[in-house]
Amino acid sequence: MTGPVLETARVRLRPFARDDVDTLLTHWRNEDVRRWLWDGRAVERDEVVDVVEESIGAFANGRAGFWVIERTGHWFAGFTGFRAMPDSTDLELYYGLDPAHWGAGLATEAARAAAQYGFDVLGLDAIPIRTDGPNEASVAVMKRLGARYVRTDPVGAFGTTIVYELRRANLTG
């Protein structure tokens, strides 16, 4: 396993591994998950392999990739972590949960641990977080983290992309 394992009161975050490809493929093909993560498109297995390999490489090079969110009694509850934004080296924070775990605050808890790692270990000054316009649940996570609204871009699968930014001083919890 490449990269650090992070633990909170209710979840354990472990770096993506090659053995996670099939689980992530199933997760990211779930209609309720892919609606927001893949703009409704059914992701292909080779794309998942690419994301996992990119994450493994990022951790190996001292950057941050993605972690699987494990919850007590459930070995897979979702994922969180960082990926470079398109056309930039800025790391964007991602998170996504299996629908069985929605509404329990796990996305906020896991994303908070990842963000803390970004500030403490990677030395990030600010962490962008983006979501499609109608994804109110994701916006609620951003607000609970302490992220501040930056702008709404007139692009995206649903017509807009909402951009927030998280700074160390604003990170809650």
Helix and strand arrangement:
Elements: E1 6-7, E2 11-15, H1 21-29, H2 31-37, H3 45-60, E3 66-71, E4 74-84, E5 91-97, H4 106-120, E6 126-132, H5 136-145, E7 148-153, E8 161-167
Helix pairs in contact: 1-3, 4-5
Can you give a write-up of this model?
This protein has 173 residues and is α+β, with helices and mostly antiparallel strands. The chain is built from five helices and eight strands. It has helices at residues 21-29, 31-37, 45-60, 106-120, 136-145, and strands at 6-7, 11-15, 66-71, 74-84, 91-97, 126-132, 148-153, 161-167. A five-stranded antiparallel sheet has the order 1-2-3-4-5, with helices on both faces. The chain has a three-stranded antiparallel sheet with strand order 6-8-7, covered by helices on one side. Helix 1 crosses helix 3 (45-60) and helix 4 (106-120) crosses helix 5. The longest helix has 16 residues, at 45-60. The protein is globular and about 40 Å long. It starts with 5 loop residues before the first strand and ends in a 6-residue tail after the last strand.
